[in-house]
Every structure is written in C-alpha cells, then in structure tokens.
C-alpha cells in the first residue's frame, strides 16, 4: 500500500494516510505547491482540526468562523434595527451603513479565513508529526471521540457570543440605576438583569459607603488640624474605584499639608540647580552659546557631528526656538545629572548586592512600565506645577536605564578577572574602582546615553505641567491648532534629540 | 631532589566541602567516613578537597596533577585564601593563613604570593606595564617606582618593547608572559600557577616551560604548579602530587611516580610516559652477584661499555647499540652492577 518511506507518515495520519504521506514528503522535499490547500480542512475547518487533535489549528479555525458568525449576527441586528426605526431617517441611514459593513466583513473573513486555514492546515499538521516522531504520546491519527471536546468548547462560547452580538448592550449608567432600583426593592425583569451582568460593562460587584470627607483647616493657633466630615445621611454608596481614589487623595493631601517642608526643600534644591545650569545655556548670548556648543561637539565627537550640531542650532535659532531650545537643554542637563549621580551608586548596589537586586528589580520594572504621563500626576500633587516637578518626573522616568545598565555592566565583569584582582591583594574599594567600574564602563556609558535621550522625551511631555521649553511650544500649538508651528517645533525637538544622541554616543565610544 | 630545606607552604588536613550544609556534611564525613558520592547524595554538598596534607620546601617546584574536577585548583586557592577551608590549616612560613585579618591577608597576597591563571585574567583596559604593576599599585607604591619595577620584570620575561601595548594586541603566549610577569612584579616568595600553559599551543607551551624553569632556577621561588598534563608535571616538578576526587593519591619525585605508581589509577596515567629520561641505571641494574648466580659471567670490563648509576636509560641505550656485551655500571671505579640489553628493554617498556 505505502512505500517504506511513506510508512511512518501513514501510521501517523491513519485515515487517509496515503494523502498525508504524499503531502508531508513534499513538504520535507520543499516541493509542496505554493498554493496547496487541504480540501478536507478547507470545508471541515475546526472540526477537521479537532478530529486530527491539532488544537492550534482548532483555535485558528474556530476564531475565524466565530468572527464571521458574529459579524453575520451583527448584520441581522442592525438590519432589524433599521426596519424597527423606519420612521427616523438618520437612524435608518446609520444602521444600514453598519449592517452593510458587517455583512461584508462576515463574507470576507469567512472566505479568506477558510482559504488561509486550508493553506495552513498541512503546513502546521506536519509540525504535529515532527513532535509525534520525538514523543509518541503526542496525539495522532483521526478519532471521532475528540468531537466531544470540540463540541463542549463550541457550546460554551458560541451561544453567549451570538446573544451578545444580537442584542443592544445596556450602558453602564442604566445598569447602575438598575442596581440602585434593585437595592430599593423594585422588580426588574430577568432579561435586564442578565444583560447588565453578562453583556455590558463588567458588573459593579462592590458598593461601599461614601468615605468621610477630610480637610485640613488651621485652628486658632494657626496649626493645621485634621477635620473629618461624614457623608450626608442617605448618600448613595460609591464604587470601589471611587472609594480608593478618594483615599489616595486624602493621603496625598495629608502628606503635602503636614510634610510640606520636605517637598518644598526638594523644590528649592531643584530650582537652584536648574538656575545654575540655565544661567549657562539661557543666560549666555546666542552667538557665544552656539559657538561653544558647536566646538564642544567637535571636541567630543569630531567634525561631521560638529557640522550637524551647528546646522541644527542654526535651524533652532532662525525659526525662533533659541530660548526654548536652551530651556529644554537646561532641563535635560539637570535631570540627566541627577539621574547619573543617583543612578550610579544605586546601580552599583543592585549589581553587587543580592538584596539590592531583590528590592530594586521590581521597582525598576514598575518605573519602566508606567506610561510617562502618569508620572506627571504625583509630581503635580506634591510639587505643584513648574520646572522643578517637571525635572522630578523626568528623573523618575529616565533613571531606570542608568541603574540597570550599571548593574548589568558590573555583573558582566568576568569572575576570573575579579578573582585575579583579589589574589593580588585588592580590597573591595580597589576592586570596584580599578577593575569593576572600568570594565563596566561601556555599559555605564550606554546607560548615560539612554538617560539623556529619555530625559529629553520626558522634558517635552513635562511641558504639560509647566516645565516650559520646546515642549511648551508644541502643546501651545496643539491647543491653538497651529499645525505649521507645531511641525516646526517638532522638527526642532527631533534635531535636539539627534544632536544629543550623536554627541553622547560618539563621546562615550571614545572612552 | 630532597626537600630538606624549610617548608614554605604547609597544608594540614585540609578539607573543602561546597554547599549550604557543608558543616553538617563535614561532621558526618568525620563520623562515618562517607565517600564523595554519598555526601552528594545525603547533603547535596560537593567534596572539593579531601583531607589533603602537603608541604612544599623553599625553592621547590611542586606540581599538583589531576584531571578536571579533581580539586587541584580548589586546593591551590586555599593557599592565598581565595577559598576558605571547611577544616584544616594552611601555614605559610609558619603563619596560619586562616588567622590573618582582612588587611593582613591582603598584604600577604600582594607581597608574598603571586598567582598565574589559566585564562590570564589580564585587565583589558590597562597596558601591559600597568597590568604588571597592578599588585604594586594596590599596595600604593608610587608611579615612578612601579614603572621601574615593572620594566625590570618585563625584561625578565622578554617582553621588551611591549610595555605600552594593550593585552588584546598580544598573542596568547605573550599574554601569559604578562600574567607571569604580573605574578613576579612584587617579588613574592611563592608562585601559584593554575594551569598557566594549558591554553597555549604545544610549541609555545614548551618554550614557556623551558623559560619558566630557567627563571625559577635563578629566582628560587617556591612554586605550586597545577597541571592536568603528566608530561608537563614531570618536566616541571621537583615533586608531583597526583590528585583524584579531591584526594592526593600519591606524592613523589617524577621517577618515583613513574617507577612505583601507588595504585592502578596512577599506573594507568604513567603507562604512556617515556621512561628514557626518568629512570636511572641504579634502578634497573642487577648486582653482579645476582647476575652471576643466574649462571652467567661478566665479560672483562674492558670489553664492556661502562656507565654511572646516575645515568638515565637514554644514555644506556646509546651505549648498548652495536654491542653484544652487557653494560657494566661503575661507581667510583667499583663495578656495582650489570644492565643487559633485555633488562634495558624491559625497563623502557616499564616492566620489572
């Protein structure tokens, strides 16, 4: 029946073995037609995949058919709605457009999806064969018993999906109203309750009494006190989200009122530092600043980059962004300096101490995953608006790569090199300064580059809380829809970024 | 060679057990004399060094030979306390290394002990000269003196003109010269050489071995030389310790190791070794009386090639070629023994 080479394929496929032996052989010889399609899979789709116990293909086929089915159901829903609202022309128009969209989607997804599935079928099925060759416990062959499993999955998913797509979902507000009505003892039809629970927004499961309102007025001696005002009798309960948000607000309020000195101290420090830096950038006549910056670029990174820097600075100047650009540079410099000064020792700690790593790895993960906008909120809450909170948000945003790359660099120093240094009598400080840090230098430099680049991007965003600079021009342009000016400023920021990146990168490669 | 001079490095019953439960395992090994496999099984601990006692005399080259995992690198790291022993003492010039405080230990490492590593472990960001002067720099020697001393050692290992290069610009053999120079820069009494030539190709290795022997003859440094290569051990060592599974199987001169292997493990090792330069006439000769009891007579001495008891087999082979008479061994004009061709051939094969 089959030749010896075909036997294992046929044994694997069982039913219709000769066909699969032929196809698999062609795949192994790279001789399968480019448009080869498995007809059984094309028509059988996920049922075929279930019979063959290929659950990857089952998932692909099922999702394709489900999308088509849901679109079909949506078509009927909107077509029906168009007829129901025949008296309102604008509704009819809207529903008919939607219905058309859905029927087209349904057809396209179904036809293309099935073709794709038929095309994929043998190409993925052969992978199951490879797995089976290694591990004979891998399901193989053709078995009707697997239909039960497939049927169960379909039954669990399809009815609810169809119900959801054929019904108009209630909005969140009406569901909340309904919750209150139920709490007040009113009768609500089962369908309405079911709809709110299953097909709307995730149901509000937790209702909490409104928390006390907390204020911090001064007493007769001028001291701040904590004053709690209970919610008015009979006030409706609030959701968990509102409750926790309220508590956070109270906490922040408490800290700013009673530990304001601490935050003010930080603000003063940042402002002094920034003033010193911007005295250099902003306070210098443009001609001198431009010359010095270009020369610095030449000294650090060579002629080509110096020319680029010169041209970029000229662009910024001629389009009237000089002051703003220098403002931005001052902010970047201030933030970067803080990041490096604080990040280097932290990185050394994380790189050398097990405990440092345990504490900081999750903190850094969180710092890097939180979207940059979110940092603006606590900055405003504790430090109000202006440049200092802008720098602070920037520092938090830009510090992680410094810590991480310093730690990484230290960890990559070969154990044997450290051992050699110890064998020659190095003490811990000498080991760090004469062996570990020099060997980690490339990584640390990469960290500094990252810090500077990330500071720039965050400083632009920090314009939203009044940090000024180039970002302010862009936000202003956004508010007043001055597209042209916005584009010019945007290009200026891009030039600033490229300038800094190129110079820092070259300079760090030189060391 | 007899190590009659004072002992510079002494290890007394040194044990090293790696693992979280090392102390427990140590107690159990003491009480029940567990094997390496049993310790691993019961405590999840690895026995690195097992009850090793050695003493190395002044100016001696002491080879520690063993396959990878036999504990030889671990043992040698106890001497400058890069590894702390689980039990046992290490004495250097009579000072117990375990009793030294951190600063005294660093001082000893910098001044008394130089170490050479298999992978060189040079600092890539420093020039050859600064690498060599590293241990001096750690002791806060001023830059001028440092450079002077380093240049002297550079001459010693024939790296003239390479002082201002970076290690990456040098070949493997030259890098290991730098490693050697770095170890000798502070003029230490003791050299620890951890498979220094293993990573080099055979010709360069041989050249460096010769140079090192030459150096050590003039500098008189007490050397612990680790190798996994028996040929190298025999070439370099005044004495050889053979290690297996953390234990020392045999300690002896190269000739003792080759002619009287302590057990099957050692004899398997030495089976392939050429005896020509290692075995001497006094070992293979038959006393005249015994020769004559076997019913043979010694031909007149004038007709026989003659040799000294200290001549090696290689010399004897040269004498016996084209001769029908046996070699007569004479010590101070007295005939002390006879070596026949057959006896010589047996000795070369390592039999009898």
TrEMBL record, chain A:
Name this protein carries in UniProt: ABC-type proline/glycine betaine transport system, permease component
Any Pfam family: BPD_transp_1
Assigned GO CC terms: ATP-binding cassette (ABC) transporter complex
Membrane topology: Multi-pass membrane protein
Entry keyword Transferase: no
InterPro entries registered for this protein in UniProt: MetI-like, MetI-like_sf
Example GO molecular function: amine transmembrane transporter activity
Limits of the ABC transmembrane type-1 domain: 325-504
Keywords: Cell membrane, Membrane, Transmembrane, Transmembrane helix, Transport
Gene3D superfamilies membership: MetI-like
Primary site of residence: membrane
Domain of life: Bacteria
Family to which the UniProt record says this protein belongs: Belongs to the binding-protein-dependent transport system permease family.
Sequence intervals crossing the membrane: 35-51, 57-76, 97-121, 141-163, 251-270, 276-298, 305-325, 331-351, 451-474, 486-504
Cellular localisation: Cell membrane
Alphabetical GO biological process terms: choline transport; glycine betaine transport
TrEMBL record, chain B:
Cellular component terms per the entry's GO annotation: plasma membrane
Top enzyme class: translocase
Keywords, alphabetical: ATP-binding, Cell inner membrane, Cell membrane, Membrane, Nucleotide-binding, Transport
Source organism superkingdom: Bacteria
GO molecular function list: ABC-type quaternary ammonium compound transporting activity; ATP binding; ATP hydrolysis activity
First-listed, main subcellular location of the protein, grouped into a coarse class: membrane
InterPro entries: AAA+_ATPase, ABC_osmolyte_uptake_ATP-bind, ABC_transporter-like_ATP-bd, ABC_transporter-like_CS, Gly-betaine_transp_ATP-bd, P-loop_NTPase
GO biological process per UniProt: amino acid transport; glycine betaine transport; response to osmotic stress
E.C. no: 7.6.2.9
Membrane topology: Peripheral membrane protein
Residue ranges constituting the ABC transporter domain according to the UniProt record: 29-270
Membrane-spanning intervals of the chain: none
Family matches, as Pfam families: ABC_tran
Reaction(s) this enzyme catalyzes, per UniProt: a quaternary ammonium(out) + ATP + H2O = a quaternary ammonium(in) + ADP + phosphate + H(+)
Subcellular location: Cell inner membrane
Family listed: Belongs to the ABC transporter superfamily.
Subunit structure: The complex is probably composed of two ATP-binding proteins, two transmembrane proteins and a solute-binding protein. The complex is probably composed of two ATP-binding proteins (TmoW), two transmembrane proteins (TmoV) and a solute-binding protein (TmoX).
Record's protein name: Quaternary amine transport ATP-binding protein
Natural source organism: Poseidonocella sedimentorum
């Amino acid at each position: 029946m089959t030749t010896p080479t075909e036997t294992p394929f046929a044994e694997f496929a069982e039913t219709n073995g000769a066909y699969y032996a032929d196809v698999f052989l062609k795949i192994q010889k790279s001789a399968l037609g480019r448009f080869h399609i498995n007809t059984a899979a094309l028509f059988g789709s996920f049922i075929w995949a279930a019979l063959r116990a290929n659950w990857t293909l089952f998932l692909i086929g099922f999702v394709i058919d489900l999308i088509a089915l849901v679109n079909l159901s949506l078509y009927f829903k909107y077509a029906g709605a168009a007829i129901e609202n025949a008296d309102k022309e604008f509704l009819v128009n809207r529903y008919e457009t939607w219905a058309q969209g859905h029927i087209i989607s349904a057809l396209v997804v179904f036809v293309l999806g099935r073709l794709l599935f038929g095309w994929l079928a043998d190409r993925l099925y052969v992978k199951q064969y490879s797995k089976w060759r290694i591990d004979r416990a891998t399901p193989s062959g053709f078995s009707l018993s697997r239909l039960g499993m497939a049927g169960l999955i379909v039954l669990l998913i399809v009815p609810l999906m169809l119900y959801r797509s054929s019904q108009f979902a209630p909005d969140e507000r009406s569901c909340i109203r309904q919750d209150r009505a139920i709490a007040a003892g009113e009768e609500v039809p089962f369908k309405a309750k079911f709809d709110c629970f299953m097909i709307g927004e995730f149901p509000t499961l937790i209702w909490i009494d409104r928390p006390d309102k907390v204020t911090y007025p001064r007493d007769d001696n001028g001291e701040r006190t904590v004053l709690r005002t209970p919610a008015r009798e009979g006030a409706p309960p609030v959701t968990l989200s509102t409750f926790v948000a309220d508590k956070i607000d109270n906490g922040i309020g408490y800290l700013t009122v009673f530990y304001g000195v601490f935050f003010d101290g930080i603000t003063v420090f940042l402002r002094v530092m920034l003033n010193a830096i911007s005295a250099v950038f902003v306070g210098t006549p443009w001609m001198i600043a431009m010359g010095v910056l270009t020369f610095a670029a030449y000294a650090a990174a060579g002629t080509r980059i110096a020319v680029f820097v010169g041209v970029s600075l000229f662009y910024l100047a001629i389009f009237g962004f000089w002051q703003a650009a220098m403002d931005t540079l001052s902010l970047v410099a201030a933030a970067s300096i803080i990041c490096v000064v604080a990040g280097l020792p932290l990185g050394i700690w994380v790189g050398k101490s097990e405990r440092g790593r345990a504490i900081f790895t999750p903190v850094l993960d969180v710092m890097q995953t939180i979207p940059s906008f979110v940092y603006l909120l606590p900055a405003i809450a504790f430090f109000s608006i202006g440049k200092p909170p802008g720098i602070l948000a920037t520092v938090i945003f830009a510090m992680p790569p410094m810590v991480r790359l310093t730690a990484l660099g230290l960890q990559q120093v070969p154990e044997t090199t450290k051992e050699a240094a110890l064998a020659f009598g190095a003490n811990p400080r000498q080991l760090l300064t004469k062996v570990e840090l020099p060997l980690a230098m490339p990584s640390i430099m990469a960290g500094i580059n990252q810090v500077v680049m990330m500071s720039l991007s965050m400083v632009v965003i920090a314009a939203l809380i009044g940090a000024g600079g180039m970002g302010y021009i862009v936000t202003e342009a956004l508010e007043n829809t001055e597209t042209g000016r916005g584009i010019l400023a945007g290009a200026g920021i891009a030039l600033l970024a490229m300038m800094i990146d190129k110079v820092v990168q070259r300079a760090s490669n030189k060391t | 060679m007899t190590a009659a001079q004072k002992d510079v490095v002494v290890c007394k019953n040194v044990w090293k057990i790696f693992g979280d439960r090392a102390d427990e395992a140590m107690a159990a090994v003491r009480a029940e004399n567990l094997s390496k496999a049993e310790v691993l099984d019961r405590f999840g601990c690895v026995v690195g060094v097992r009850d090793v006692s050695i003493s190395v005399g002044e100016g001696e080259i002491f080879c520690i030979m063993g396959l990878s995992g036999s504990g030889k690198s671990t043992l040698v790291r106890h001497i400058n306390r890069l590894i702390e022993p689980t039990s046992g003492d290490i004495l250097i010039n009579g000072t117990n290394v375990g009793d030294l405080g951190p600063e005294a230990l660093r001082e000893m490492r910098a001044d008394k002990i130089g170490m050479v590593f298999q992978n060189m472990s040079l600092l890539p960001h420093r020039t050859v000269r600064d690498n060599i002067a590293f241990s001096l720099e750690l002791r806060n020697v001023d830059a001028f003196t440092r450079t002077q001393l380093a240049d002297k050692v550079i001459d010693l290992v024939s790296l003239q003109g390479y002082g201002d290069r970076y290690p990456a610009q040098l070949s493997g053999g030259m890098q290991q010269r730098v490693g050697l120079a770095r170890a000798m820069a502070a003029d230490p009494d003791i050299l620890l050489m951890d498979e220094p030539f293993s990573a080099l190709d055979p010709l360069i290795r041989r050249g460096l071995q010769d140079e090192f022997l030459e150096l050590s003859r003039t500098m008189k440094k007490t050397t612990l030389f680790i190798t996994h290569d028996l040929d190298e051990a025999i070439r370099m060592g005044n004495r050889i310790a053979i290690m297996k599974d953390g234990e020392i199987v045999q300690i002896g001169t190269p000739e003792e190791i080759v002619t009287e292997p302590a057990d099957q493990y050692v004899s398997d090792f030495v089976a392939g070794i050429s005896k020509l330069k290692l075995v001497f006439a006094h070992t293979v000769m038959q006393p005249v009386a015994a020769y004559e009891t076997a019913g043979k007579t010694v031909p007149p001495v004038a007709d026989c090639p003659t040799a000294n008891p200290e001549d090696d087999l290689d010399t004897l082979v040269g004498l016996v070629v084209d001769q029908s008479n046996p070699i007569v061994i004479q010590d101070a004009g007295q005939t002390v023994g006879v070596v026949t061709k057959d006896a010589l051939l047996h000795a070369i094969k390592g039999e009898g």
